[in-house]
Amino acid sequence: MGITWIKYPVMFVTVVLIQVLLLNQIQFSGFVNPYLYLLFILLLPVSMARYQVLLLSFLLGLTIDVFSNTPGIHAAATVFAGFLRSPLIGRLSGRESEINDYPGLKQNGMRWFVLYTAVMVILHHFFLFYVEVFTLSRFFATFFRSLASSVFTIFMIVLSQFLIFRD
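User: That's the sequence. What structure does it adopt?
Assistant: Structure tokens below.
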């Protein structure tokens, strides 16, 4: 329990700093934007109350919005992802006894983690990019941008599980 009070605040600050200082500066051909900060929401304990997940999701999105000068777009997208997280874990796991409290790759297996990450990232990115443009006139351009960014973000999150989060 004590390690949780250190682990998650450090993870929060780390993903925000990586996102704001490094990844927000990366944009491949104006289409691909990696959003690694979603990793924080993905790795919150499964047993955490839903209101806590939503509150932490909002704080994460608001922090990214403040540093990125985007008026609430990331906050809305992270709350959306936080809202969908519990039902998605329930659907993917089947029975609650099968899932580990820490939804990491090592704890739950490669197939489960990649599927969980892919669904969460794709839903988050589609919500984020369509709210950002707030029109359907460029539907296919936004669709391609969301898909390309999702693939790159999923790759980065899974890679982070092999490189950093090996506990």
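The longest helix spans residues 139-163.
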